[in-house]
Amino acid sequence: MDTPRTQADPTQQMLALLDLSDAGGAATSEEIFVGQSQQQLHGRVFGGQVLAQSVMAAIRTVDPARPIHSMHGYFLRPGDANEPITFGVQRLRDGRSFSTRRTQAYQNGVPILSLIASFQLPALGLDHQEEFPEDIPDPESLPSTDELLAKVDHPARSQVLDRPYDIRHVQSPLYVAAKGERVAANAVWMKTKGPLPDDENLHRAALAFGSDFTLLESVLRQHGVSWVTPEMKVASLDHAMWWHRPVRVDDWLLYVQDSPSASGARGLSMGRIFNRRRELVATVAQEGMIRIPDEVLEQQR
């Protein structure tokens, strides 16, 4: 049976998760922040959440005039959504134009994620980008997740519907079935369900949060696998992100994804994020563990 949905606004919940405590000024060799987690069906911390919180912790130690432009993170252990997360930030470098930070996310005294982020003062320079893809329908013409799952009875339904992002699939979604052509490609429109404050760094952290929802779907689509495949296990191993231009996540963004390779129970996905002005605002890469039961693998061949 479906579990009850929470009543709080999902976007406000995300903002609360990103509003880290400074732990009363506590510090060791690292500057300390503390955050909470959104409840998940299996009790594990959602990867996009801890990424975004780690980014926010690093942001809190950098001059606001230097927005984050890249981060590289490794998921080391599954997090417990019922326990707070402690974030330790180390100031690695502050140069004339760039600042570098390392954030470690801890639970029970051990790191669950390790991330390095770089920040830069805005500067003029060479400028080009990959072209916006053709023949993409407008987001308003596509069904929302709420509409797609209105009549679905599955334990994960409420968790998907309580996401802070409105996500609309260009291809047939993979929530409960894998229909259509088997290609290593996926595209979604997405934006937060509510407005965010005018804070560029907050929008960049929130984009890291949203970048983790659908990225591995380009791997699954190639093999005709849906999210409800029996006994399938999926976990993010690492996540890299580059912010190219200013972004607002409370306006529609096109997230175009493809998978160059899958092997050894791992799949690699690349993503490019465009705004409605057709500007490339970010690029993402992630490798995930995807374990499929042998009998399901045989059916896919």
UniProtKB/TrEMBL annotation:
Residue ranges occupied by any Acyl-CoA thioesterase 2 C-terminal domain in the UniProt entry: 170-289
Coiled coil feature spans: none
SUPFAM superfamilies: Thioesterase/thiol ester dehydrase-isomerase
Domain Acyl-CoA thioesterase-like N-terminal HotDog: 43-120
InterPro entries reported for this sequence: Acyl-CoA_hotdog (IPR042171), Acyl_CoA_thio (IPR003703), HotDog_dom_sf (IPR029069), TesB_ACOT8-like_N (IPR049449), TesB_C (IPR025652)
Gene3D superfamilies assigned to the protein according to its UniProt record, in alphabetical order: Acyl-CoA thioesterase, double hotdog domain
Keywords: Hydrolase
Family: Belongs to the C/M/P thioester hydrolase family.
Full protein name: Acyl-CoA thioesterase II
Protein's organism: Arthrobacter hankyongi
Species classification: Bacteria, Bacillati, Actinomycetota, Actinomycetes, Micrococcales
